[in-house]
Design goal:
The protein is an alpha/beta fold. It is built from 12 helices and 18 strands. The strands form 4 sheets. The protein has a 7-stranded mixed sheet, with helices on both faces. Helix 1 (about 25-35) packs across helix 2 (about 60-75) and helix 9 (about 290-300) crosses helix 11.
Length: about 400
């Protein structure tokens, strides 16, 4: 067994290697250039996921997606096409991302897979092309820090409020180049949707991965999705050493919001006074799960979005969309005035639903509010509950 320590370079077999419609065509181009006429290492572990521009509304994206489809047909590789949804969520729901697994792709937020105790990593197109061919790659072992969440999540607060509090505490460089292990009773109590929310914003802390040991509920979910009954959570070794331990006390937490134009500009929602909103976006890999839209529907049911506010909802996957349809949640959103779009990344991808115009103020459940990321306007990051309340009020408020 190879000994590893921070800074060491190790070669690892890849359980899943993937490419999305963003950079996927470049992966294909590099594969054809450097491995002409060769086959991918294992077609059953190799996937394309289209989620950035779906269905394609530009000629370049349409061409890039077709290049990936043609390559996939040649190689016998499965494509989760433009109707499937966000790739990282699809990997979880299809039972491809499992505890202890190693998954790579062209998605900078693939570390979201730490939500199920897997190591997910976004990489460049040449690296992914190599992974397609070799089925393995090298990593520099990161130092690991521990983030301990003290206290229980108060009533009126959500996993997104907890996440924003962690981002605000650590800052954009607090976990730079590190792996994070999240611990605490509040972490153990999070459902899968909440774990996804927390892990999805580790990138905004500078982190490599944010690992959460799966509880029984998550293991049961993954076992059902993967058809495997041998799954078990991966826990830290006894006597594990950490470069740093940070405690975040959420005992008195209130709803949080990230003020433009940095994700770590986090303040209580109540400190944002008299800010009128033009639009609201609910979705993205951070808050596009079924539970997120149910939370919105509970707030807006029987009410109307304020005049002049554009409220948009984008489910993360086709399956989630279908469940929302079956349970009448989409009807509730529609009746309140929401625009409901097809599954995908939505506002995190340029040109998709959720873009802002100059001087537009938006409350969004996405993970980044850098200037220009979601258009030329100003984006505030908040929970689905805060977004829903703001949509009804026409200004930034919480429930």
């Amino acid at each position: 067994r190879e000994e590893v320590s921070p800074g060491a370079v190790v070669w690892m077999d890849l359980d899943v290697r993937s490419a999305r419609d963003f950079a996927g065509a470049n992966v294909v181009g590099n594969f054809r250039k450097y491995y002409p006429g060769e086959k991918v290492d294992d077609a059953y572990r190799t996937f394309f996921t289209f989620d950035c521009n779906v269905p394609a509304n530009t000629i370049p994206y349409a061409n890039n997606q077709m290049r990936c489809r043609e390559f996939a047909r040649e190689q016998g590789v499965k494509v989760y096409d433009v109707d499937a949804g966000i790739g990282s969520h699809v990997m979880i729901d299809e039972g491809l991302s499992l505890p202890g697994g190693t998954i790579v792709g062209t998605d900078s937020h693939l570390n979201i897979l730490g939500a199920v105790g897997a190591f997910g990593q976004g990489m460049g197109d040449q690296d992914i092309a190599f992974g397609f061919r070799a089925g393995r790659t090298w990593f520099e072992v990161p130092a690991t820090m521990r983030v301990v969440i003290k206290g229980d999540l108060p009533d009126g607060c959500t996993a997104r409020d907890l996440t924003l509090e962690v981002v605000g505490t650590l800052g954009s460089k607090g976990a730079l180049g590190r792996a994070i292990e999240f611990e605490g009773a509040a972490i153990d109590a999070l459902d899968l949707a909440g774990r996804i929310t927390l892990s999805s914003m580790v990138t905004e802390m500078g982190g490599i991965i944010g690992l959460i040991a799966p509880n029984d509920e998550v293991i049961e979910y993954l076992a059902k999705r993967s058809g495997r009954n041998d799954l078990s959570p991966v826990h830290p070794d006894a006597g594990a050493k950490y470069v740093e331990t940070i405690t975040v006390d959420i005992s008195n937490l209130t709803p949080r919001i990230s003020v433009p134009s940095k994700p770590d500009n986090v303040v209580p929602v109540t400190e944002v006074k008299d800010v009128a909103v033009d639009s609201v976006f609910v979705g993205s890999c951070t808050n596009g799960r079924y539970e997120d839209f149910v939370a919105v529907a509970e707030i807006v049911k029987g009410k109307k979005v304020a005049p002049g506010v554009m409220a948009r909802a984008v489910p993360a996957t086709r399956e989630i969309y279908g469940n929302l349809l079956a349970d009448g949640i989409i009807n509730t959103l529609y009746d309140s005035g929401f625009i409901v779009s097809n599954p995908g990344c939505g506002g995190c991808a340029s040109g998709q639903i959720g873009m802002t115009g100059s001087n537009e103020v938006q409350v969004s459940t996405s993970n980044r509010n850098f200037k220009g990321k979601q258009g030329d306007g100003a984006t505030y990051l908040a929970s689905p509950a805060t977004a829903a309340a703001s949509a009804l009020a026409g200004k930034i408020v919480t429930i």
